[in-house]
């Protein structure tokens, strides 16, 4: 009798496993698509990242004209902002492709952008004798913060 009960239970198990597998595949396929509003947030953030690149290049070109201490601080802030922007761009690409790890990559990019913003703010506080640098860094910080907001929405 035990063998009959076992064979009946075993006969249903493959059907249940197949149904569970089909359900898992269906749910996974549905989760792979990116909603339109999220696609727009990602596109906006990618445009912001490209704009930020142009400002970073402009600041990098201007640092050679600064005093050694301030020039080094600005260079470090620009490098930090560039690295954070690059990280955000990679995270946005992952999000656009709905790839695994996109949420973690976007969170990491948020942290990097926040750190870059803090570093830029520090340089702004110490560069108050150079109005052109302060204006450029203030605009850079605004763009970093805008990119932070857009990556958060993505």
Features:
mainly alpha, 5 helices, elongated, 154 residues
Characterise the protein shown here.
The protein has 154 residues and is mainly alpha-helical. Helix content is 88%, strand content 0%. The protein has five helices and no strands. It has helices at residues 2-32, 36-62, 68-96, 102-126, 131-153. Helix 2 packs antiparallel against helix 5 (131-153) and helix 3 packs parallel to helix 5 (131-153). The longest helix has 31 residues, at 2-32. The chain is elongated. The model is unreliable at 3-32 (pLDDT under 50).
Write the layout of secondary structure elements.
Layout: H1 2-32, H2 36-62, H3 68-96, H4 102-126, H5 131-153
Helix pairs in contact: 2-3, 2-5, 3-4, 3-5, 4-5
* Strand-pairing-aware structural class: mainly alpha
* Principal-axis shape: elongated
The H-and-E topology, N to C, reads as: HHHHH
**Helix percentage:** over 70%
What's the number of extended β-strand segments? 0
Radius of gyration: 25 Å
Strand content: under 5%
Tell me, rounded to a whole number, the average pLDDT. 74
Low-confidence stretches: 3-32
Number of helical elements = 5
Straight-line distance between termini: 59 Å
Question: Sheet bearing the most strands, described?
Answer: none
In short:
The chain has 154 residues and is an all-alpha fold.
